[in-house]
Amino acid sequence: MQETPRVRTLTLDVPGWPGHRAGQHLDVRLTAEDGYTAQRSYSIASAPEDGVELTVERLDDGEVSPYLVDEAREGDRIEVRGPIGRYFVWEASDLTPLLLVAGGSGVVPLMSMVRHRASAGGTASAKLVYSSRTLEDVIYRSELDELAARGDGLEVVHTLTREQPEGWTGYARRIDPELLREVAWPASARPRVYVCGSTRFVDAAADGLLALGYEPQSIRTERFGATGT
Amino acid sequence: MVFSRGFRGRRREGPPDRVPPGQYLTDDFPVLSAGPTPHTPLEDWTFSIQGGAEPVSWSWEEFRALPTETVTVDIHCVTRWSKLDTVWEGVSVDTLLQAVEHDASFVVAFCDGGYTTNLPLEDVTDGKAWVAFGYGGEPLEPEHGGPARLLVPHLYFWKSAKWVRGLSLRDEDEPGFWETNGYHIRGDPWQEQRYWGD
Amino acid sequence: METRDLRLDGNAIGGLLLEVFGVDMTAAPSVCASCGSREAVARLDVYVNAPGVVVRCCHCEAVMIRIVQGGGRTWLDLSGTGCLELG
To answer: What is the pLDDT of residues A11-22, one digit of tens each?
Structure first.
């Protein structure tokens, strides 16, 4: 399904799927008729309880993402390897306060964690701080609104960095230490943190949290590349 | 093998007399990097040739006072993209080697950030190689190797070492960063010398 | 695109390392042979826009791992890694 103009979620049917953990990814390989191949990694958006879904953002100069977002149809076949990842993973049985910081399509693996928390009835307090360019670029917007409205300990804070709708009262700038100080828990709460986005976004967010006194080892990061990885 | 219906990627084929086997054309200029981009200030930059009768070195001002050439060449990256008719400005390696007495058969180019690549002397002489400081009419950008990179267009572009700081003259061929890790010791794209033993 | 965005982390090569080592290495502790720092592979600096994959220590930037794949072959250099825990 189309999430935003440039972002699409694909549901995969993977024979022999072993199940996955929230935060893991798949390597996707496409092969053209003449044998030419291209490969990229995409985070699994779905909770472990819910099968395999990938959310893909179309990069203008991408090799794989334009095919997955614009061309792929039901019944088409792709090669996948995975699930991959033992570091950037979260279990709903973990009771530590959970801070998720997402830049753009970096929200995808964090959404798997949010969905897993909801499906498994996880009770850890959770905050998602989600940076997008405009409101139209916010992926999973209505689902996040609905989950946050349940009052079960999930809070979602958006910041729109390029353009805000009229009447917007939320944050309107890139994540910085001041914004994090206002929305994140104090370091004394010793939260577990997952940050995902471009390298520039991840470095800025992680630096901001370190400035608040967070322990480096409490912050787990995953950097997406301009290659679409 | 699973074929994905309708997938063909972004490659463009090119005329076989210009595009070596296994290569595709690109219109942009991909940035490849094995590490962080160095940023040596020009006042600290030198280019030196070591291993000759005496070491010789140029500061940035001295280097830029040397005679320069503007050349239009095709470049071929071992990662399979080729770019035709690229325009560079630089100092011929012949000009630089004239300052040194030597009887070496090989060179190793050494660079900020630690990258090295090796070449036979005959692949960097007789108008085949430059130390380039300009690309497309502009100063060479750091992400593409600025302030200066080696330019050896008749070999795969990993030989055109970015952020080059000098040449070390050698009697023997000493494999550099990629040559010690699977890539061909010489790298002629027209013989498709990509990997060891090709 | 900023050049800085070319620096990824060990998560980006999880699949490649799975292929090379036969086990998921993203959480594997690794020791830098140059400075002795110990970090999970996922925390190391990784450059994939290159003729091969280059993994660097996130503290001292020394090259820890190099992997090249081509022509059906794989080349692996671990000389910059003091130790890797394979699980």
So the answer is: 999 999 999 999
The pTM of this model reads 0.96
Contact C51 B195 (CB under 8 A): no
Structure tokens at B149: 């990179």
- Please report the pLDDT score of residue A227 as a whole number: 47
**β-bridge pairing B24-25 and A79-84:** unpaired
Q: What is the mean pLDDT of each run of 10 residues along chain B (198 residues)?
A: 89 92 92 95 98 97 98 97 97 98 98 98 98 98 97 98 98 98 98 97
ipTM confidence score: 0.95
CB contact under 8 A, B7 and A77: no
Burial A208-217 (b: 16+ CB within 10 A, else e): bbeeeebeee
Q: Measured between alpha carbons, how far is A160 from A153 in angstroms, rounded to an integer?
A: 23
Sign of CA pseudo-dihedral A130, A135, A139, A143: positive
* Chain A contact for B80 (CB, 8 A cutoff): no
Strand ranges in chain A using DSSP code E only, listed in sequence order: 2-4, 7-12, 25-31, 37-43, 52-57, 79-84, 98-103, 126-132, 154-160, 192-198, 219-224
Q: Which of C3, C50, C75 sits opposite B37 (nearest CB)?
A: C3
Which pLDDT belongs to residue A226?
60
Phi, psi (degrees; rounded to nearest 5) at B190: -80, -20
What is the model's pLDDT at position C2?
60
Say which DSSP state B195 is in.
Answer: B
At B108 the three-state DSSP class reads strand
Which of B167, B160, B145 is closest to B37 using CA atoms?
B145
Distance from CA of B178 to the nearest CA of A (A): 22
Of the residues B4, B5, B25, B33, the best mutation for testing chain A's interface (the one with the most A CB atoms within 10 Å of its CB) is: B4
Q: Which helix (H) or strand (E) holds C45?
A: strand C45-47
Give chain C positions within 8 Å (CB) of A225: 5-6, 8, 12, 48-49
Q: For A112-129, how does the pLDDT look when each residue is reduced to its tens digit (9 = 90+)?
A: 999 999 999 999 999 999
Nearest residue on chain A to B10, judged by CA atoms?
Answer: A63
Task: Give strand pairing partners of A52.
Answer: A12
Q: Measured between CB atoms, does C49 come within 8 Å of chain B?
A: yes
Alpha-carbon span A43 to A139, nearest angstrom: 14
Rg (CA), chain A: 17
Residue of A nearest to B5 (CA): A76
Neighbours of A115 (CB within 10 A): 22
Give the three-class secondary structure for A110: helix
Burial of B133 (0-12, 13-18, 19+ CB in 10 A): buried
